[in-house]
Amino acid sequence: MALARAHIDADALDVIATIASKESETGIHAAVQAFGVSLIIVPERELVAANDRVETHSARVAAFAGVGSVAEAAALAATGPRSTLIVPRLTVGTATCALAATPPESAS
Questions:
Q1: Which residues, 6 or more positions from 100, have their beta carbon under 8 angstroms from its beta carbon?
Q2: Is the dihedral angle over the CA atoms 59, 60, 63, 69 positive or is it negative?
Q3: pTM of the model
Q4: Were both Cys, which of 14, 18, 21, 86 would link to 99 (CB 3.0–4.6 Å)?
Q5: Does the residue 34 lie in any domain?
Q6: How many Cα atoms occupy the beta-carbon half-sphere of 93 within 13 Å?
Q7: DSSP string covering 31-75, please?
Q8: In this structure, are residues 86 and 6 in contact, taking their beta carbons and an 8 Å threshold?
Q9: How many angstroms separate the CA atoms of 98 and 56, rounded?
Q10: 107 part of a folded domain
Q11: Domain range for residue 62?
């Protein structure tokens, strides 16, 4: 659904990122298998460093993980310090995701 919202083909997805406490969730592993991508476990310090770039700020999530949105912060951390959100946090049922990308290098 997030890919469709961003008008992005599934083959453009490079990784799925999450935090250590969600690493064993079956839904995450099912998505990794379905998309044929790698799973990145974002270290807490990198998650927190990306927090100033998240768009969604949930007090409940902040109390749990120290960031406004785990999905957004994980996506941003996994794609690097120059990345931006393409699709902010999107929740469908019990699944939450966000999409981020790093802009291509500028031609010199």
A1: 72, 75, 76, 78, 79, 83, 84, 85, 86
A2: negative
A3: 0.87
A4: 86
A5: yes
A6: 3
A7: HHHHHT-EEEE--HHHHHHHGGG-S---HHHHHHHSSS-HHHHHH
A8: yes
A9: 10
A10: no
A11: 2-101
Per-residue pLDDT of the chain (108 residues; tens, 9 = 90+): 677 877 888 888 899 999 999 999 999 999 999 999 999 999 999 999 999 999 999 889 888 888 989 999 999 999 999 999 998 998 888 888 999 998 887 444
DSSP tag of 28? H
**Where residue 43 sits, what CATH number does that domain have?**
3.30.420.180
Looking at the structure of the chain, the number of domains it has is 1
Please indicate, yes or no, if residue 106 is contained in any of the structural domains: no
Q: Which helix (H) or strand (E) holds 29?
A: helix 26-35
| Residue that has been written with the tokens 């990145």 in this structure | 40
Q: Label the pairing between strands 84-92 and 38-41.
A: unpaired
